[in-house]
């Protein structure tokens, strides 16, 4: 098989939902003859515990030579006091940067069965299906200079740089126009061009790119603060939102939470397409974190991990049929069982294993 | 009178709601013998139209020598294509910076009469009363270097710096502990210390300050993306949130919108206390913008402006009694009349004048 997948469960519930995902992979091997060449590695706190670093060079190399990476979650309170460069998150950030996964796709979808789980009123969110496209390799997360300096008077200065270049904006902008074209044709570019110079350049490049390559897409611009407001006020006004790394971090979490489906939401982080294989550099990851409070208890909702795996089937391996099957099974399973995070009265509550079994049952029946 | 107030209506509905506010000021002069020494100036697009700059040195000097500034709103589509330094917002930003108004208080309150106007489910927001304290003179808004450079290959680099120094964090932190002490004793400090060096220093200083001066206040820390989520999930968990300029911009707009009371929310921007007068440098401003879509139609809700003026009475001039009176009148008026933005079935809809008259009626009766 040429489907080389690097599996990085990480920490906390990341390990539990990844274990559950293995059952889905086994099912596909058994009943659909869909084989993967799997390797597993440590990342985050687990890697720190074993090797004193949140990502070893070896695991990074294995990830880069794989066709796709399936990621769980990282972090935990026991790592809170580690130095900046040793924290679990650094493993994730290093993967994003070294694999040059600049396009982070974060769908915010309300599953019909979960409309009532949103904190927003049902009519504002029912049928919601927006895509947040977050630039993932630049801006405040990586640009230089950054650090903490001690000044002459003994006080300190902590600083980060939010920098974007023309080519960095162009490549994420292109993904935005492509995505919008495949969806409802509307792209909202979000920045603070009234305050930030990086935002001025961002808007300038988006406008030019729209003229050159944006045919069939309606481009609009919105300030990031207004976008945070509008997501709460009337989220259905959006189709695709494209924004920088830091704004994307806040806005995608806000959007994810308002769906009420946080435990259900996947993400894909994509880089350039390999000219030899035709496959993009790619990592797939649930939007939720490592949830230390429920870790190890068998309570975690595995559906975001499954949906991330389904994105992998679709975007990395072109297995649309199996992706459809898995997504349908997830949707069917919701009618039968629910983990605690998405419980609503009248449903039967279960844990990670029960939820996984319900999905596999549904796959059997499809 | 030594209550010198500089009035800056600005653009769009800023002018209409400020005009309405003058009726409140007249009432206080007539029935409470409360006099103000008022001057008026241009800011934003209005200043640009008259003088080619969004804030003249003269208006800035007048604002700095006043005891307090009452601000309306700035901006409008006709100024969209102006150069960065000429845009209406620059007038506002220059006032904040030159007057060193580093502490921006943004209450997010749900008025009982408006619970149903929120996009969140009523039980999540009824009784909501949180305070977002935003640092207003540093970070990505002002720190250097910033700009757009043309590189050797002809492409551009747009960059901004998010820098915070120990004293900058200390002075806003102190305001945070003070506010929390006067409220429910809980302060949540929000940053991205898992990613940004400015955030690492921010957290470090907040922890030290808590040990030194935070008695009676419970301090917790939250990442900004998680805060955006938690505001949507369960906003009542917060008391005071303290955060930097850029995060504060997004989070306060998000919080304001979820109250359903956007047209009602005031803000205060405070600087250091003048040792001669005992009065802080101060500017009071509604949270809403200039609303070009409804400007000039007499439809604007003046209540956020009135509430801002009420904050001025309280914080700058110690007129708690009059502030209470005005706030009670606003609350009473809501039972009688509503502008379009806060209409709910069963209420009588009105415009700026009608809403103002309802407040003045209520003051007459109190
Ligand atoms: C864990 C953290 C470093 C990460 C980020 O800030 O990007 C996370 O919040 C995310 O959104 O994937
Ligand atoms: C108008 C704009 C410059 C301003 C800001 O970004 O601070 C506004 O959004 C605010 O929050 O007061």
From TrEMBL, chains A, B:
GO process annotations (BP): L-leucine biosynthetic process
SUPFAM superfamilies recorded: Isocitrate/Isopropylmalate dehydrogenase-like
Residue numbers binding substrate: 96, 106, 134, 225
HAMAP family: LeuB_type1
Similarity comment: family membership: Belongs to the isocitrate and isopropylmalate dehydrogenases family. LeuB type 1 subfamily.
Subunit description: Homodimer.
Protein name: 3-isopropylmalate dehydrogenase
Biological classification of the source: Bacteria, Pseudomonadati, Pseudomonadota, Alphaproteobacteria, Candidatus Puniceispirillales
Gene designation per UniProt: leuB
């Amino acid at each position: 098989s040429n489907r080389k997948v690097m599996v990085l469960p990480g920490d906390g519930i990341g390990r539990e939902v990844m274990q559950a995902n293995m059952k889905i992979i086994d099912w596909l091997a058994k009943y659909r003859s869909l084989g993967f060449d799997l390797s597993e590695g440590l990342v985050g706190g687990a890697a720190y515990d074993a090797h004193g670093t949140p990502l070893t060079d070896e695991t990074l190399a294995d990830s880069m030579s794989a066709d796709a990476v399936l990621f769980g979650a990282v972090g935990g309170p026991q790592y809170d006091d580690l130095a900046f460069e040793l924290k679990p998150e650094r493993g994730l950030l290093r993967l994003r940067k070294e694999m040059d996964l600049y396009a982070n796709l974060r769908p915010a979808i309300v599953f019909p069965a979960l409309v009532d789980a949103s904190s927003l009123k049902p009519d504002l969110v029912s049928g919601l299906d927006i895509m947040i496209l977050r630039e993932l390799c630049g801006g405040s997360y990586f640009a230089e200079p950054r650090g903490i300096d001690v000044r002459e008077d003994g006080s300190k200065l902590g600083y980060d740089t939010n920098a974007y270049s023309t080519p960095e904006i162009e490549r994420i902008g292109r993904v935005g126009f492509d995505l919008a074209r495949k969806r409802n044709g509307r792209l909202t570019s979000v920045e603070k061009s009234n305050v930030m110079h990086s935002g001025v350049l961002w808007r300038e490049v988006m406008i030019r790119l729209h003229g050159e390559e944006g045919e069939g897409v309606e481009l609009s611009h919105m300030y990031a603060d207004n976008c945070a407001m509008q997501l709460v006020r009337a989220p259905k006004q959006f189709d695709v939102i494209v924004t920088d790394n830091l704004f994307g971090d806040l806005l995608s979490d806000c959007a994810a939470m308002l769906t009420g489906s946080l435990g259900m939401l996947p993400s894909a982080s994509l880089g350039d397409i390999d000219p030899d294989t035709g496959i993009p550099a790619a990592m797939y990851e649930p939007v939720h974190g490592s949830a230390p409070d429920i870790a190890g208890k068998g309570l975690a909702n595995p559906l975001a991990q499954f949906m991330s795996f389904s994105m992998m089937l679709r975007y990395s391996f072109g297995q649309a049929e199996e992706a459809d099957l898995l997504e349908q099974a997830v949707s069917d399973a919701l009618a039968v069982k629910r983990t605690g995070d998405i419980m609503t009265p009248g449903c039967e509550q279960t844990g990670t294993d029960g939820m996984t079994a319900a999905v596999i049952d549904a796959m059997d029946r499809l």
